[in-house]
Amino acid sequence: MGAIKSVEQLEAYRRELAAAARPELPTVLVCFGTGCQANGARPVAEAFMDVIKEQGLEIDVNVGIKTTGCHGYCENGPLVALRPQDILYLKVKPEDVPEIVEETVKGGRVVERLVYRDKATGEAVARYSEIPFYRHQQRIALRHIGTIDPASIDDYILAGGYAGLTKALAMKPDDIISEVERSGLRGRGGGGFPAGTKWRSCVAVESDVRYVLCNGDEGDPGAFMDRSIMEGDPHSVIEGMIIGAYALGSHQGYIYVRDEYPLAIRNLTAALEAAREKGLLGEDILGSGFSFDIKISRGGGAFVCGESSALMRSVAGEVGEPRAKYIRSVERGLYDKPTVLNNVETWANVPEIILKGADWYASIGTEGSKGTKVFSLVGKVNNTGLVEVPMGISIRELVENIGGGILGGKEFKAVQTGGPSGGCIPERLADLPIDFDSLTEAGSMMGSGGIIVMDEDTCMVDVARYFTGFLVEESCGKCTPCRDGLPRMLDLLTEITEGCGGEEHLAMLEGLCDLLTWGALCGLGTSAANPVLSTIKYFRDEYEAHIRDKRCPAGVCKALITYHIDPEACTGCRLCAKNCPQECITGKRKEPHTIDADKCIKCGVCKDVCTFDAVRIS
Amino acid sequence: MTEVTRDLAQFDRIIDRYEKTEESLLAILQDFQREFHYVPEEGIRRLSEVIGVPASKIYAMGTFYKALSLTPRGRHTIKVCTGTACHLKGAPQILEALERELKVKRNGTTEDGEFTLECVNCVGACAMAPVTLVDDVYHGQTRPSKIMDVVKKQVGS
Question: Are the Cβ atoms of B64 and A300 closer than 8 angstroms?
Fold first, then answer.
């Protein structure tokens, strides 16, 4: 059908879709997330189509993007979920498809060899919702991901999409802003600034033109929730932006997306087009008289463009350098007009807040941080992936209950939150509730919600050096503290990891951190001290081991470690010797081998190939 | 002369997909990069003419944004993700293995013009760490000892 011209017509259309839907039909959901596609999801989906056609079956095959695809099961992809049985299969191959159809779809039986097995207990869990990873989650921003086809606006509408918008169009713009204020929604991009307050201060500025922007730059290493939302549920972002635009009286919006996310760009582009066709975007939306449209702006791989003023310059087709923010962008943002910039996850929350009300949203979470937050739980943890939980969950609950504990039974050392603007929180503070304020108090930051789990094999000095190196590369170089201060910090950290650090290095680092915090132009520079200061604060002993004892306790810093072979464990299989690029491993077959430490370049290939865990680091 | 004409048409085909405003500059440059594996000087001149922006400004964008390169890149691009999760799970070793095997430093191109080796800061596939992209195809959980096999298998050499 063509454009929908009123709220009533949209509701009628939804009823029509519901009547045509056949929920009694068995449904096969093939994950088409980045991970699953890399592992061959397409041939699996095709195999289902073939079997269905061949046998003339009535099965609904839905090619969707599932967050399951991103919770570490990517490595176990392609993933296939089956309804109504509520079963999840991992590592499905095209040749498994006839058996799945025969056994599960037709017979209702479980194909045991394809189900999830708990890494800790070895127990098989066939039911999707019983997988430990899901039990503790509460999904608002991720509400549709994995259950709808992102390429189908009908799927979104059938799932209740655009009902937030229809409710909003019946409200006064001012009441929408009040609702967002009362919900307590704070910016999910990292800063945690109250969204309602931002909107309120934007409408307070007199202007004929206003802009609504969505930040989909997501440069934080270790975070990929925005990617998942843009790829898996683009309409939720679009709907949120239309509501925002209506409340703010804006007629043009932009979504700034990283060019590294081609699937997100493709799905967003298609969703925008579908929304325009349906009359949900463009002129006279749903016959309300309100007009608004959205353009996509592709980022160019510059981390600093996630910063608001840099992002706005980049959207306008300029070099994305930040500016000093003595005038806020709600007053003079894009093209010097009042602009509201919120991140992907923030926008995706808006339709639900309007639909279900501020009180409902504010009842979730903690006093100062309302609602849920999507975290990307990655690093040295058993179940990695995206999890959406109420604010206030403790680090320990997240890592142990949802994450299933530390990989390989190693010791839990720390979590890093907030990307390069955040810091490391040690295991002894793991009972800390995760919300905007508590993380900041602990010297870290919420950031976009990346939670990187670190174990005993992680060197905290190396981590600080890593983040500083990242920021040196990403600094735009416009202000002196960042341009000159960061490289000096990197030098100092590198010297420490190379065993050339002195006692004075720590004081110099702290001094430079102080300088950046008060002297840098934008958020990239002012928060750059966090990774360094937090690791010095909580892991000073590790710095001291590097400086005083010339030792890397975690066995990471190359200059301070040596590789050797444990003669007890070595079986003399020759695999390491064959793979050593330096040819510095010798020994007879079936006899323990040795590494010539003088020739060894510490590339780690021997450790990587050894199947007997005989290569050790000391 | 004929070559220049052909080139201009190639650039125009890309430019014509967009509105001729400054807002489109970055997207057009990215399409140049995709098509030619770098941003050619002729392309910048043409873009400058069509959009009416000084070439110096377009050069500034070319050097600022990481996705753009002003020098030709190899036929195949290998991107090693060096995001935090990948870093912890062994990306540095993978990068070293590639540098050693391809005899090229990071952000360099092999002498035969076959490969360009790049580091990228997080491709948003952290659950598959460590990740290496060969011509934008994702390879998760790569290992230093196996990475060249992965590359060779994909590019078929």
Answer: yes
